[in-house]
Protein backbone atom coordinates (compact mmCIF):
# COMPACT_ATOMS: atom_id res chain seq x y z
CA UNK A 1 0.00 0.00 0.00
CA UNK A 2 1.44 3.30 -1.12
CA UNK A 3 0.90 6.23 1.27
CA UNK A 4 1.04 9.91 0.36
CA UNK A 5 1.13 12.57 3.01
CA UNK A 6 0.21 15.88 1.36
CA UNK A 7 0.86 19.26 2.96
CA UNK A 8 -0.16 18.16 6.43
CA UNK A 9 -0.43 20.75 9.16
CA UNK A 10 -1.41 19.78 12.68
CA UNK A 11 -1.93 22.20 15.52
CA UNK A 12 -2.87 21.31 19.08
CA UNK A 13 -4.86 24.29 20.34
CA UNK A 14 -2.57 26.93 18.86
CA UNK A 15 0.65 24.93 19.05
CA UNK A 16 1.87 23.83 15.62
CA UNK A 17 3.14 20.24 15.92
CA UNK A 18 3.54 19.74 12.16
CA UNK A 19 4.11 22.38 9.50
CA UNK A 20 3.32 21.53 5.91
CA UNK A 21 4.69 17.99 5.90
CA UNK A 22 4.65 16.05 2.62
CA UNK A 23 6.00 12.54 2.14
CA UNK A 24 5.50 9.67 -0.28
CA UNK A 25 5.97 6.17 1.07
CA UNK A 26 6.27 3.46 -1.56
CA UNK A 27 4.37 0.21 -1.34
CA UNK A 28 6.42 -2.36 0.58
CA UNK A 29 8.89 0.23 1.82
CA UNK A 30 10.26 0.33 5.37
CA UNK A 31 10.71 3.98 6.21
CA UNK A 32 12.04 5.43 9.48
CA UNK A 33 10.95 8.73 11.00
CA UNK A 34 14.02 9.95 12.87
CA UNK A 35 14.28 13.03 15.05
CA UNK A 36 14.72 14.27 18.60
CA UNK A 37 11.93 14.15 21.14
CA UNK A 38 9.17 16.62 20.28
CA UNK A 39 9.97 16.80 16.57
CA UNK A 40 6.53 15.50 15.57
CA UNK A 41 7.26 11.83 14.75
CA UNK A 42 4.45 10.35 16.85
CA UNK A 43 2.01 12.99 15.64
CA UNK A 44 2.77 12.12 12.03
CA UNK A 45 2.41 8.40 12.76
CA UNK A 46 -0.92 8.93 14.55
CA UNK A 47 -2.18 10.97 11.62
CA UNK A 48 -1.29 8.13 9.25
CA UNK A 49 -3.03 5.67 11.61
CA UNK A 50 -6.19 7.74 11.87
CA UNK A 51 -5.76 8.32 15.62
CA UNK A 52 -5.48 12.06 14.87
CA UNK A 53 -6.89 14.14 12.06
CA UNK A 54 -4.96 16.85 10.22
CA UNK A 55 -5.72 20.54 10.69
CA UNK A 56 -5.17 20.81 6.94
CA UNK A 57 -3.74 18.62 4.21
CA UNK A 58 -4.50 15.10 3.09
CA UNK A 59 -3.40 11.52 3.55
CA UNK A 60 -3.86 9.09 0.66
CA UNK A 61 -3.76 5.29 0.93
CA UNK A 62 -3.08 4.21 -2.61
CA UNK A 63 -5.13 6.66 -4.64
CA UNK A 64 -7.96 7.01 -2.16
CA UNK A 65 -8.27 9.90 0.29
CA UNK A 66 -8.05 8.34 3.75
CA UNK A 67 -7.94 11.66 5.65
CA UNK A 68 -11.42 11.29 7.17
CA UNK A 69 -11.34 7.51 7.63
CA UNK A 70 -11.21 5.78 11.00
CA UNK A 71 -8.42 3.49 12.22
CA UNK A 72 -10.54 0.41 11.42
CA UNK A 73 -11.35 1.63 7.92
CA UNK A 74 -7.69 2.29 7.24
CA UNK A 75 -6.82 -1.19 8.49
CA UNK A 76 -3.47 -0.34 10.03
CA UNK A 77 -1.53 -2.38 12.57
CA UNK A 78 0.50 -0.58 15.20
CA UNK A 79 2.92 -1.22 18.00
CA UNK A 80 4.00 1.34 20.56
CA UNK A 81 6.96 1.55 22.90
CA UNK A 82 4.95 0.32 25.87
CA UNK A 83 2.35 -1.65 24.04
CA UNK A 84 0.79 -3.42 26.97
CA UNK A 85 -0.48 -6.86 26.13
CA UNK A 86 -3.61 -7.94 27.98
CA UNK A 87 -2.20 -9.52 31.13
CA UNK A 88 -5.13 -11.81 31.81
CA UNK A 89 -5.08 -13.26 28.27
CA UNK A 90 -2.78 -15.90 26.87
CA UNK A 91 -0.33 -14.96 24.15
CA UNK A 92 -2.54 -16.67 21.53
CA UNK A 93 -5.63 -14.77 22.70
CA UNK A 94 -3.67 -11.51 22.64
CA UNK A 95 -2.66 -12.16 19.06
CA UNK A 96 -6.19 -13.10 18.02
CA UNK A 97 -7.81 -10.19 19.83
CA UNK A 98 -8.18 -7.89 16.82
CA UNK A 99 -10.01 -10.66 14.97
CA UNK A 100 -12.33 -11.67 17.82
CA UNK A 101 -13.65 -8.11 18.14
CA UNK A 102 -14.62 -7.91 14.47
CA UNK A 103 -18.35 -7.65 13.82
CA UNK A 104 -20.16 -10.95 13.24
CA UNK A 105 -20.02 -11.86 9.59
CA UNK A 106 -16.45 -10.63 9.13
CA UNK A 107 -15.16 -12.45 12.22
CA UNK A 108 -13.26 -15.67 11.45
CA UNK A 109 -14.29 -18.86 13.27
CA UNK A 110 -12.58 -19.54 16.56
CA UNK A 111 -10.51 -22.44 15.19
CA UNK A 112 -9.35 -20.22 12.32
CA UNK A 113 -8.27 -17.48 14.73
CA UNK A 114 -6.32 -20.04 16.74
CA UNK A 115 -4.66 -21.36 13.60
CA UNK A 116 -3.73 -17.82 12.53
CA UNK A 117 -2.24 -17.09 15.98
CA UNK A 118 -0.07 -20.19 15.71
CA UNK A 119 1.09 -19.22 12.26
CA UNK A 120 2.02 -15.75 13.50
CA UNK A 121 3.90 -17.19 16.46
CA UNK A 122 6.01 -19.14 13.97
CA UNK A 123 6.55 -15.98 11.95
CA UNK A 124 7.78 -14.00 14.97
CA UNK A 125 9.87 -17.01 16.04
CA UNK A 126 8.01 -17.86 19.21
CA UNK A 127 6.49 -21.19 18.18
CA UNK A 128 4.57 -23.06 20.85
CA UNK A 129 4.34 -20.13 23.28
CA UNK A 130 0.65 -19.40 22.61
CA UNK A 131 -0.46 -20.80 25.96
CA UNK A 132 1.80 -18.57 28.03
CA UNK A 133 0.81 -15.34 29.72
CA UNK A 134 2.66 -12.08 28.92
CA UNK A 135 4.41 -11.94 32.30
CA UNK A 136 6.03 -15.29 31.48
CA UNK A 137 7.85 -13.70 28.53
CA UNK A 138 10.93 -11.47 28.28
CA UNK A 139 10.57 -7.85 27.13
CA UNK A 140 11.87 -8.71 23.66
CA UNK A 141 9.45 -11.63 23.36
CA UNK A 142 6.55 -9.41 24.41
CA UNK A 143 7.35 -6.89 21.70
CA UNK A 144 7.39 -9.71 19.16
CA UNK A 145 3.96 -10.80 20.41
CA UNK A 146 2.78 -7.19 20.05
CA UNK A 147 4.02 -7.27 16.47
CA UNK A 148 2.25 -10.57 15.83
CA UNK A 149 -0.93 -9.00 17.21
CA UNK A 150 -0.55 -6.04 14.86
CA UNK A 151 -0.04 -8.42 11.92
CA UNK A 152 -3.03 -10.62 12.81
CA UNK A 153 -5.55 -8.23 11.31
CA UNK A 154 -3.67 -8.41 7.99
CA UNK A 155 -3.04 -4.69 8.02
CA UNK A 156 -2.40 -2.72 4.87
CA UNK A 157 0.22 -0.72 6.72
CA UNK A 158 2.34 -1.40 9.80
CA UNK A 159 3.08 1.55 12.11
CA UNK A 160 5.71 1.15 14.81
CA UNK A 161 6.35 3.90 17.37
CA UNK A 162 9.70 3.26 19.10
CA UNK A 163 8.66 -0.36 19.56
CA UNK A 164 12.02 -1.38 21.03
CA UNK A 165 12.63 1.82 22.98
CA UNK A 166 12.08 0.26 26.39
CA UNK A 167 14.45 -2.66 25.84
CA UNK A 168 18.15 -2.89 26.58
CA UNK A 169 20.72 -2.24 23.88
CA UNK A 170 21.60 -5.84 23.06
CA UNK A 171 17.96 -7.01 22.74
CA UNK A 172 17.16 -3.93 20.69
CA UNK A 173 19.92 -4.71 18.25
CA UNK A 174 18.76 -8.30 17.83
CA UNK A 175 15.15 -7.25 17.34
CA UNK A 176 16.19 -4.65 14.79
CA UNK A 177 17.88 -7.27 12.64
CA UNK A 178 14.98 -9.62 13.17
CA UNK A 179 12.44 -6.97 12.11
CA UNK A 180 14.44 -6.21 8.97
CA UNK A 181 14.34 -9.90 8.03
CA UNK A 182 10.65 -10.16 8.85
CA UNK A 183 10.00 -7.16 6.64
CA UNK A 184 11.90 -8.74 3.79
CA UNK A 185 9.69 -11.82 4.05
CA UNK A 186 6.32 -10.14 4.53
CA UNK A 187 6.82 -6.89 2.59
CA UNK A 188 4.39 -4.76 4.60
CA UNK A 189 4.59 -1.04 4.01
CA UNK A 190 6.06 -0.03 7.37
CA UNK A 191 6.65 3.28 9.12
CA UNK A 192 9.06 2.99 12.04
CA UNK A 193 9.58 5.85 14.51
CA UNK A 194 12.86 6.18 16.39
CA UNK A 195 15.12 8.84 17.89
CA UNK A 196 18.12 6.52 17.41
CA UNK A 197 20.04 7.28 14.22
CA UNK A 198 21.83 3.94 14.21
CA UNK A 199 18.53 2.11 14.46
CA UNK A 200 17.01 4.19 11.66
CA UNK A 201 19.93 3.69 9.30
CA UNK A 202 20.28 -0.02 9.97
CA UNK A 203 16.58 -0.77 9.56
CA UNK A 204 15.12 1.48 6.98
CA UNK A 205 15.19 1.74 3.20
CA UNK A 206 14.87 5.49 3.61
CA UNK A 207 15.17 7.76 6.61
CA UNK A 208 13.02 10.84 7.16
CA UNK A 209 14.84 13.28 9.42
CA UNK A 210 12.47 15.53 11.36
CA UNK A 211 13.00 18.60 13.52
CA UNK A 212 10.46 20.96 15.05
CA UNK A 213 7.51 19.68 13.06
CA UNK A 214 9.28 19.77 9.72
CA UNK A 215 10.98 17.26 7.45
CA UNK A 216 14.61 18.25 7.10
CA UNK A 217 15.69 15.51 4.70
CA UNK A 218 14.55 12.22 3.21
CA UNK A 219 17.22 9.83 2.00
CA UNK A 220 19.22 6.65 2.46
CA UNK A 221 21.58 6.29 5.40
CA UNK A 222 24.45 7.24 3.11
CA UNK A 223 22.62 10.35 1.89
CA UNK A 224 22.01 11.72 5.33
CA UNK A 225 25.55 10.97 6.57
CA UNK A 226 27.44 12.09 3.49
CA UNK A 227 25.18 14.75 2.04
CA UNK A 228 23.30 16.28 4.97
CA UNK A 229 20.90 18.82 3.50
CA UNK A 230 20.72 21.18 6.46
CA UNK A 231 22.80 22.21 9.49
CA UNK A 232 20.31 20.33 11.65
CA UNK A 233 20.86 17.03 9.81
CA UNK A 234 24.62 17.53 9.83
CA UNK A 235 24.75 17.98 13.58
CA UNK A 236 22.05 15.43 14.46
CA UNK A 237 23.71 12.64 12.49
CA UNK A 238 27.11 12.06 14.03
CA UNK A 239 29.58 14.45 15.64
CA UNK A 240 30.07 17.89 14.17
CA UNK A 241 31.86 21.21 14.52
CA UNK A 242 30.74 24.55 13.24
CA UNK A 243 33.12 27.34 12.24
CA UNK A 244 32.07 30.70 10.84
CA UNK A 245 33.99 31.33 7.61
CA UNK A 246 34.18 33.87 4.83
CA UNK A 247 34.21 33.02 1.14
CA UNK A 248 36.00 35.40 -1.19
CA UNK A 249 36.86 34.62 -4.80
CA UNK A 250 36.44 30.88 -4.30
CA UNK A 251 38.61 30.74 -1.19
CA UNK A 252 37.25 29.76 2.21
CA UNK A 253 38.95 31.66 5.02
CA UNK A 254 38.80 31.65 8.77
CA UNK A 255 40.32 34.84 10.25
CA UNK A 256 42.39 35.33 7.14
CA UNK A 257 43.74 31.76 6.99
CA UNK A 258 42.67 29.97 3.82
CA UNK A 259 41.16 26.57 4.60
CA UNK A 260 40.16 25.40 1.14
CA UNK A 261 38.28 26.21 -2.04
CA UNK A 262 34.62 26.32 -2.94
CA UNK A 263 32.31 27.29 -5.77
CA UNK A 264 29.97 29.07 -3.38
CA UNK A 265 29.36 32.80 -3.63
CA UNK A 266 31.27 35.42 -1.68
CA UNK A 267 29.93 36.10 1.78
CA UNK A 268 29.64 34.67 5.28
CA UNK A 269 29.04 30.93 5.60
CA UNK A 270 28.79 28.30 8.28
CA UNK A 271 31.35 25.54 7.79
CA UNK A 272 30.37 22.17 9.26
CA UNK A 273 33.09 19.59 9.66
CA UNK A 274 33.25 16.24 11.45
CA UNK A 275 35.99 15.53 14.03
CA UNK A 276 37.54 12.84 11.81
CA UNK A 277 37.65 15.23 8.84
CA UNK A 278 40.18 17.54 10.49
CA UNK A 279 43.86 16.82 9.97
CA UNK A 280 46.78 18.16 11.97
CA UNK A 281 48.84 20.53 9.83
CA UNK A 282 52.48 21.52 10.11
CA UNK A 283 52.96 24.66 12.19
CA UNK A 284 53.11 27.70 9.96
CA UNK A 285 50.68 26.23 7.43
CA UNK A 286 47.36 28.01 7.10
CA UNK A 287 44.48 26.43 8.96
CA UNK A 288 42.41 26.62 12.09
CA UNK A 289 44.88 27.70 14.75
CA UNK A 290 44.18 26.97 18.38
CA UNK A 291 45.35 25.23 21.49
CA UNK A 292 44.55 21.85 22.86
CA UNK A 293 42.17 22.10 25.74
CA UNK A 294 41.56 18.48 26.68
CA UNK A 295 41.38 15.00 25.23
CA UNK A 296 39.47 11.82 25.86
CA UNK A 297 39.73 8.30 24.61
CA UNK A 298 37.09 7.29 22.04
CA UNK A 299 37.46 3.64 21.08
CA UNK A 300 40.69 3.20 19.11
CA UNK A 301 41.34 6.91 18.77
CA UNK A 302 41.31 10.03 20.86
CA UNK A 303 39.06 13.07 20.63
CA UNK A 304 40.73 16.35 21.49
CA UNK A 305 39.01 19.62 22.22
CA UNK A 306 40.67 22.57 20.57
CA UNK A 307 40.01 26.16 21.52
CA UNK A 308 40.48 28.29 18.42
CA UNK A 309 42.67 31.35 18.88
CA UNK A 310 41.18 34.75 19.52
CA UNK A 311 38.08 33.48 21.32
CA UNK A 312 36.86 31.36 18.45
CA UNK A 313 34.59 28.36 18.95
CA UNK A 314 35.78 25.20 20.66
CA UNK A 315 35.95 22.32 18.22
CA UNK A 316 36.58 18.60 18.44
CA UNK A 317 39.12 16.71 16.41
CA UNK A 318 39.85 13.02 16.19
CA UNK A 319 43.51 12.16 16.74
CA UNK A 320 45.27 8.84 16.68
CA UNK A 321 45.66 7.27 20.11
CA UNK A 322 49.42 7.98 20.16
CA UNK A 323 49.16 11.65 19.10
CA UNK A 324 50.58 14.26 21.44
CA UNK A 325 47.60 15.41 23.47
CA UNK A 326 49.46 17.65 25.88
CA UNK A 327 47.15 20.30 27.26
CA UNK A 328 47.93 23.79 25.98
CA UNK A 329 49.78 22.47 22.91
CA UNK A 330 49.41 24.78 19.88
CA UNK A 331 47.81 23.05 16.91
CA UNK A 332 46.79 23.93 13.38
CA UNK A 333 44.00 21.97 11.76
CA UNK A 334 43.01 21.62 8.14
CA UNK A 335 39.56 20.43 7.20
CA UNK A 336 39.71 17.63 4.61
CA UNK A 337 35.97 17.43 4.04
CA UNK A 338 33.18 19.82 5.01
CA UNK A 339 29.87 21.36 4.09
CA UNK A 340 29.02 25.04 3.84
CA UNK A 341 25.60 26.36 4.74
CA UNK A 342 24.51 29.96 4.30
CA UNK A 343 24.47 32.07 7.47
CA UNK A 344 20.72 32.46 7.23
CA UNK A 345 19.94 28.71 7.17
CA UNK A 346 17.73 27.32 9.93
CA UNK A 347 19.63 27.15 13.19
CA UNK A 348 20.93 23.73 14.16
P1 LIG B 1 7.93 13.07 19.00
O1 LIG B 1 7.15 11.82 18.82
O2 LIG B 1 8.86 13.37 17.88
O3 LIG B 1 8.64 13.12 20.32
P2 LIG B 1 5.33 14.33 19.16
O4 LIG B 1 4.71 14.12 17.84
O5 LIG B 1 4.88 13.45 20.27
O6 LIG B 1 6.91 14.31 19.02
O7 LIG B 1 5.07 15.83 19.61
C1 LIG B 1 5.33 16.94 18.79
C2 LIG B 1 4.91 18.19 19.53
O8 LIG B 1 3.48 18.24 19.63
C3 LIG B 1 5.45 18.25 20.93
O9 LIG B 1 5.81 19.57 21.22
C4 LIG B 1 4.27 17.81 21.79
O10 LIG B 1 4.32 18.39 23.06
C5 LIG B 1 3.08 18.32 20.98
N1 LIG B 1 1.91 17.46 21.16
C6 LIG B 1 1.81 16.17 20.79
N2 LIG B 1 0.59 15.66 21.07
C7 LIG B 1 -0.09 16.66 21.68
C8 LIG B 1 -1.41 16.78 22.24
N3 LIG B 1 -2.28 15.76 22.20
N4 LIG B 1 -1.75 17.97 22.76
C9 LIG B 1 -0.90 19.01 22.79
N5 LIG B 1 0.35 18.98 22.28
C10 LIG B 1 0.75 17.82 21.74
MG1 LIG C 1 7.07 10.08 20.03
Structural summary, described in words:
The chain is of the alpha+beta class and 348 residues long. The chain has 2 domains: 3-235, Rossmann fold (3-Layer(aba) Sandwich); 239-342, OB fold (Dihydrolipoamide Acetyltransferase, E2P) (Beta Barrel), CATH 2.40.50.140. Helix content is 25%, strand content 36%. It is built from 9 helices and 20 strands. The protein has helices at residues 41-49, 71-74, 91-100, 110-123, 139-152, 169-186, 197-203, 221-226, 231-236; strands at 3-12, 15-25, 30-34, 56-61, 64-65, 76-80, 157-161, 189-194, 206-211, 214-219, 241-248, 251-254, 257-261, 267-273, 278-280, 288-298, 301-308, 314-320, 330-335, 339-342. A 6-stranded mixed sheet has the order 6-7-8-3-9-10, with helices on both faces. Strands 13-12-11-14-20 form a 5-stranded antiparallel sheet. A 5-stranded antiparallel sheet has the order 15-19-16-17-18, with no helix packed on it. Strand 11 and strand 12 (251-254) form a beta hairpin. Helix 4 (110-123) packs across helix 5. It starts with a strand and ends in a 6-residue tail after the last strand. Adenosine-5'-diphosphate binds at residues 12, 15, 17, 35, 37-43.
Amino acid sequence: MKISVRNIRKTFDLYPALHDVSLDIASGELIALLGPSGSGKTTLLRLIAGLEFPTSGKILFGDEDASAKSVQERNVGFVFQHYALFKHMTVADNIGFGLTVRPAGTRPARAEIRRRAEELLELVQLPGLGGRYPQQLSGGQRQRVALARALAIEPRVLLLDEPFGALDAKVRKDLRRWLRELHERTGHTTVFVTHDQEEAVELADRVVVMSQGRIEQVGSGDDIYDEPATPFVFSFIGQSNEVPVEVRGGEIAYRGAVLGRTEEADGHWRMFVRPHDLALAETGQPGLAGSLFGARRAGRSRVAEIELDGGGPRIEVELSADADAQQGRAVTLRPTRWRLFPQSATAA
